[in-house]
Amino acid sequence: MYAIIKNGGKQYKVKEGDIICFDKMGLEPKSKVEFKEVLAINDGELKVGTPFVEGAVVEGEVINEGRGKKIIIFKKRRRKDSKLKRGFRRDFTRVRITKIA
Known about the structure:
By secondary structure, the chain is mainly beta. Helix content is 0%, strand content 62%.
């Protein structure tokens, strides 16, 4: 059984027991979170919403919040003596999916 949920403008395919990193939500560890924007759910047969499946809820538990690895963005324009180097670290909230209903 799996579900496709929407959070923060992105879509995620989740199953019970999965650990997913979402964009930072600002929640405390061990707190519960509900995702009501369920786009599709599959429990033997696929149910697709228009745009959301009515009555479907995905529940999860916040594990922790953190920051991802640093990503280096480097742009160089050849023969122009132009370079740009920037770094970026993504803030995330790690959630364990507990129930799909």
